[in-house]
Amino acid sequence: MLIEIATTDFETTQLAVKGGADRIELCTGLSEGGITASAGLLKLCRKKFDLPIYPIIRPRSGDFLYNKDEFEIMKHDIRYCRSLGFEGVVLGLLNINGSIDQDRVQRLIELAYPLEVTFHRAFDRCVDSFAALEQLIQLGCERILTSGQQPTAPEGASLIAALQKKADDRIIIMPGSGVHTDSIVELAKQTGCVEFHSSLRSLKDSAMQFIHPSFTNSKESYTNPGIVIEAIQLIKQKLNAL
Description:
Strand order of the largest sheet: 3-2-1-8
Oligomer: single chain
Distance between the termini: 9 Å
């Protein structure tokens, strides 16, 4: 059993490592679904942490239909991540009709090699999940991050279980979204999956002593992203007990 933690900055990555995360999905803008981290953040996290880190390759928030320029950005970011020696990257591209953009996904997989590739929750916006599953297997993706085409993995557990069975060890199915200490055991039992993805996001108060009176109630001004270390440890304990 393995737990991947999505982190959004150096501090949350450090907390996830301390909590015992098995792998990191590194991004920024997690509230927007995750966007590619800055060059500085990528470089420092690679330097400081030894566990597997998979940066997300996503040039913007919104849909997963990318134009030519956005695709060039993705290629550049993959080259940079490969040069830093990451273990893998996380990406996803769709066609206008909701199918997998097989041609460009294949080109990115080839460009990323020998880095492994996770296809992210663009999968949950696919028109046909089982056709997409077979296509991603053929393309050589290592795993699929999915909430079972529902807002959260517990809601999509039945489809995740069906995908896990259909995958038949040809690709890893990794539930994500709504994965936390209260849902992890039932989700593992329902789906039969062995890798899980969570952010376990929290907020911590800023260390600022001066609080501008005009922004007293502004959370974004005086709280910072955090991760509860104990929550990671509890999830790992529950998984190891299965």
